[in-house]
Design a protein that fits this description.
By secondary structure, the chain is mainly beta. The protein is 10% helix and 37% strand. Strands 1, 2, 3, 4, 5, 6, 7 and 8 form an 8-stranded antiparallel β-sheet that branches. The longest helix is centred in the N-terminal third of the chain and has 10 residues. Keywords: Signal.
Length: 181
């Protein structure tokens, strides 16, 4: 009974919540965002329908189930196994336009090579935006950029690396949850 009187006469604005304080008004908005972000999975994966649309201009090394940079399998990489080579560009097309904000590229790193890549993203209207351009990168590179609707990724060979080609073991693209504060 005492609790009833306390609550009756207590002004409790700290217990009030308004929709203005919420980032999303309901679960429907969260579901739509999740779909646009491919449920936060790797959109540059064979299992999610991504393909290398420039494949006829690229060289693949390794056994058939282990040579694609879009594969999901466990990696068994040696000098003769599991990578893609180009002296122009590699284009990864997604099954549909997705919202992403991060790309991870694993460059061939078994012999100390360094690369000079340029990575661009393309939206459904064929507008390209450069998200990464650097000199002499090695191993695994994580590229973070503002949220964008993307239909394909283009990894271009640029002169200035150790050798005259671009060699890639793995490519991933997804929406990474993070705070921009």
């Amino acid at each position: 009974m005492t609790l009833y009187f306390i609550l009756l006469f207590l002004d409790y604005p700290f217990l009030m919540f308004t929709n203005g304080n919420c980032k999303y008004q309901n679960n429907q908005e969260l579901r739509v965002k999740s779909i646009l972000r491919s449920y936060y999975k790797d959109v540059a994966s064979e299992s999610n329908g991504a393909i290398i649309s420039s494949a006829k201009f690229n060289k693949f090394y390794g056994i058939s189930q282990n040579m694609s940079p879009l594969r999901d399998s466990i990696y068994s990489v040696d000098h003769d196994n599991g990578h893609i080579v180009t002296n122009s560009s590699i284009v990864v097309s997604f099954a549909s336009t997705q919202e992403i904000n991060q790309i991870i590229v694993w460059f061939y790193d078994l012999d100390g090579r360094k690369f000079n890549p340029k990575i661009t993203v393309q939206n459904k209207d064929n507008i390209e935006k450069v998200v990464f351009e650097d000199l002499l990168v090695q191993s695994i590179v994580k590229i973070k950029f503002p949220d964008q609707m993307v239909s394909s990724i283009k990894l271009s060979y640029m002169e200035g690396g150790t050798l005259n080609d671009l060699v890639i073991i793995k490519i991933q693209a997804f929406y990474a949850r993070r705070n921009w504060t």
